[in-house]
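User: what does the whole thing look like in 3D?
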Amino acid sequence: MLPAPDTIHACPHCGHNAYRSSFLSGNTFSSRLWSDGYLQAPMLDDAVQVTRCTNCKATYWVQDAPVLERVPYGFFNKYSRTQQESRNFALSEQHALQDDPAPSRPVPPKMEHLDQRGHLEALKELALAPHKDREAYLRLRIWWAHNQPFRNALKPATPTEDAESLANLHGLLALLETSTEKGILLSAGALAALGRYGDARAILAELYAEGFSEEKKRFMQALKAEEGWLVALR
Ligand SMILES: [Zn+2]
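Assistant: Here's the predicted 3D structure for the full assembly of 234 residues, as structure tokens:
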């Protein structure tokens, strides 16, 4: 993983600061890809895109939060103990390495991913300012959270039945681009989650033209068996 600078942002609602750490690239060693597109990868960066302000408690998109400052990667982690003691980089500057310029402002809290309630809240707010990519991002994460209990369960995942999850799946399906391999795989997964195995097989078959990787074969076998739609592909 290549580190990138951490960034300090201002909440677009109240101006309160938070920092985000990110990487320029990640790798997928010891990763597991699921048929709902969820990638379990300890080494892959999953930089926060949408978060909740620790001050005003509103959710916001990092893209909408102005960058106040860039700080060398790892700076915050290195000084986390000092942070707790002083909560102010100005006071901890003497501990810093010479090459590390200390941020000029007090240590802000680290941005966290939203939980499921936060995702649903952010989705509601999107109704006021529709944004296709953001909606897809949220709906995909809402789906992943719903699927989480099935990942290591012994029983196959059954078709989705509760009204909220169904509405989310239909919303997600409408947003997926079936012109890309990723979109096709996700669409097949979402259709199967709705119990529409035939439609899922039909859309997955479109990938035959590009050859069938082990992942696609495994997914197709599961869809043919109609024994659950959440499969570890690799
Ligand atoms: Zn705020």
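In plain terms: The radius of gyration is 21 Å. The chain has a mean pLDDT of 82.
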